Amino acid sequence: MAFHYVARGLIRDADHILLVRAIGDTMTFLPGGHIEFGESASVALARELSEEASIDAKVGTFVGAAENEWFLDGQLQAEINLIFDVETDLTHQKPVVSNEAHLEFFWVPCGLIDQWNLFPESLRSLIRSNQLPEHTFWGSGIKLKSG
């Protein structure tokens, strides 16, 4: 089993949200990436946004967390995504250019998030509302195991 500890950002402009995916993949994600050992989640998110797309971000309020699991090459993968509200000067009317050849960034209307195969899936309801929750968000894609 592999475990991933990840920081992701809600980067919104009007009724749009910024998503990212590996080129050729069908799954999309909120921008962000792995938290390194000894690094705080907010620092990791700012670093990842800068590295991946030269995004100058002000990492704001902790919104919540989403856990997820999947199989990759027969091995169980699990992750915890820490989600933060992020302020930038980006606008959905201008594309975000990736610094990494394997990634592409794009804006989508929040109301159409279900069409974009966002993972973890539990984030879709959060994005669809285009509002920060009143209380800390918790989402899970982990299947309940008996026993």
UniProtKB/TrEMBL annotation:
Pfam families: NUDIX. Residues 2-131 form the Nudix hydrolase domain. Gene3D superfamilies: Nucleoside Triphosphate Pyrophosphohydrolase. Keywords: Hydrolase. It comes from the Bacteria. InterPro entries: NUDIX_hydrolase-like_dom_sf, NUDIX_hydrolase_dom. Its cofactor is Mg(2+). GO terms for molecular function: hydrolase activity. This is Nudix hydrolase domain-containing protein. It comes from Photobacterium lutimaris.
